[in-house]
Amino acid sequence: MPSSCAASPETSKILKSLTPSPSKAYSPTSRIPTISWPPSGLPQSPLTSQPNSPLVHNGFKSYAKQILTDPSYQPVLTELRQPLNPDTPPISVLLTGHSLGGSAAIIHAALLAEAGVPQERISVISFGAPPVAQLTFESRYPAITFTRVDNAADFFTRNDTSPLLPAYSLLDLHPVGTPLESDPSPRFLQLQQERQTFETRIPQQLDQQDSLQDSLAGYTYLSGQIIDEQVKIHVQDYAYYFQHYNTTLGWLEGNIE
Fold first, then answer.
1. DSSP codes of every residue in 142-169
2. pLDDT at position 67, please?
3. 3-state secondary structure 62-81
4. What is the pTM of this model?
């Protein structure tokens, strides 16, 4: 299990004071995102200028770099780069986040490694993170411990039920980390089963206009309900896992709603 960050009081104070500004990569201003299709240009670029640097999502990279390039963050980098000293407690850093924060944590971990922080000191636990990188990304950082917590049927993660899967496949974006996955919610499975009933009826009703319209209306309504459930899964259903890590690793004091 990844260890939590152990650093000097000064470093801890700096970390707490750094709050990136909102990213343009993902702004959940409504329940369902507006997706431009086909995409205008590919939103990936190399993580660094080094040869064979893996491609990552531009927006998430920009968000993750905000802290790394902050002048007040340099003492943190200096401390994390220090060689191991048997006379002092080992220094490690655990990065975590949900959704955009999870994707940013993944990229920020790689940026730390590129900045000279030993990979063995870096761990990431992401919750519901959208895929942000090529498959070659993880192999470039073999000593970083990446763990991803994904709820099945989450709208934004890469899974067979996500409406975003075609876009992720086209852009060659993949999840990062050893997966900890849950089963779909009972309501999601129920809605899928109900929609399947209408899907089966529609080909049989092509010459029955009234019945066909009813089936199409039912199919459309249930499709909307399924998307609502997938968004709910993404927004609400990670609290249990976060509380588990909070309890076992002592991330925060108190409970979360």
1. TTSEEEEEEETT-SSSSSTT-TTHHHHH
2. 83
3. HHHHHHHCCHHHHHHHHHHH
4. 0.74
- Coarse DSSP helix, strand, coil percentages of the chain, rounded to the nearest 5 percent: 45, 10, 40
Tokens 């993170």 sit at which residue?
129
Distance CA 163, CA 27 (A): 18
- What are the distances in angstroms from CA 96 to CA 5, 23, 66, 105, 203? 11, 17, 16, 6, 47
Q: In this structure, is the dihedral angle defined by the CA atoms of residues 214, 215, 221 and 225, taken in order, positive or negative?
A: positive
Gap between the Cα atoms of 244 and 112, Å rounded:
26
27: left (phi over 0), alpha (psi -120 to 50) or beta: beta
Give, in degrees to the nearest 5, the angle at Cα 221 between 188 and 202: 100
The pair of structure tokens assigned to 156 is 């934004």
Mean pLDDT of successive 10-residue stretches along the chain, which has 257 residues: 47 46 38 42 76 87 86 87 76 89 94 93 93 92 94 88 86 90 89 91 83 89 92 85 72 47
In the prediction, which pLDDT does 81 show?
87
Q: Which helix (H) or strand (E) holds 230?
A: helix 209-236
Q: How far apart are CA 189 and CA 60, in angstroms?
A: 31
Coil/strand/helix, residue 223: helix
CA distance 23 to 20: 8
**How far is Cα 225 from Cα 46, in angstroms, rounded to an integer?**
38
